Amino acid sequence: MHTEILEASSEESDSPESDNQHNTYFENNDNFVLLKFKDGEASISILEKCWLGIFHLIDMKELGVIIETVINFSSHPIILPNKRTTLSIVATDNAHMCKLNADFRNKPIPTNILSFSDGSIDQTGDEFHLGDIFLGYEIINKEAKTQNIPLKNHLNHLIVHGVLHLLGYEHEDEIQAQNMENKEKKILGIFNIPNPYSL
User: Fold this and answer.
1) Do 58 and 102 touch, CB atoms closer than 8 A?
2) Integer Cα distance of 98 and 33 in angstroms
3) Fold that domain 3-198 belongs to in CATH
């Protein structure tokens, strides 16, 4: 699998510096990066500055491969057309997540992740947009500390979870939840990320 990083060029940023060579992708005021893989791409937009420090912990090339692996892992409830697959990830804060949760789920409380599928078969053009994933900074950071797990592992797990939702997976009942968890564990295991459900 090949993942290409395309950066948005802009003015200098006040984002935190890092010693790791893969931690340079958000060093611009646009706070945007595009992960291109063999059959598609994923965009990541940071709306909350606190996320900059977290994404500096993430190997973006590996994240692109993780997303590609989820999409190509096996058959899904949504049958993907023979087009380039795209999706977007938006890193935001509690206030934004609370509004989204209230507007779309009638739950006026913040949450860690929300996935909005756009995978309608009748999309025109050369691309098939799976949908959008929103991540809430405060809750995700707190969950990682409470569960005593590396923040990047927790974030990677949630992104896997979110992409599976875009592909049509749900956890409305025990059977659905078990099926989704099993997929998550197998995919995370490929990247040596411990089973989050046994912690």
Assistant:
1) no
2) 25
3) Collagenase (Catalytic Domain) (3.40.390)
**101-148 pLDDT per residue, tens:** 999 999 999 999 999 998 666 677 788 899 999 999 999 999 999 999
Query: Which residue, chain included where needed, has tokens 């938006």?
Result: 90
Distance from C-alpha of 16 to C-alpha of 46, rounded to nearest angstrom: 14
Helix pair angle (151-166, 137-147), 10° resolution: 120
Beta bridge partners of 85: 40, 128
What are the extents of the domains in the chain?
Answer: 3-198
What are the Cα distances from residue 29, in Å, to 25, 53, 133?
A: 11, 14, 21
**In 3D, which of 162, 140, 143, 24 has the Cα closest to residue 93?**
140
pLDDT band (50, 70, 90) for residue 13: very low
List of E strands, 62-126:
84-92, 113-117
Give pTM, 2 decimals. Answer: 0.84
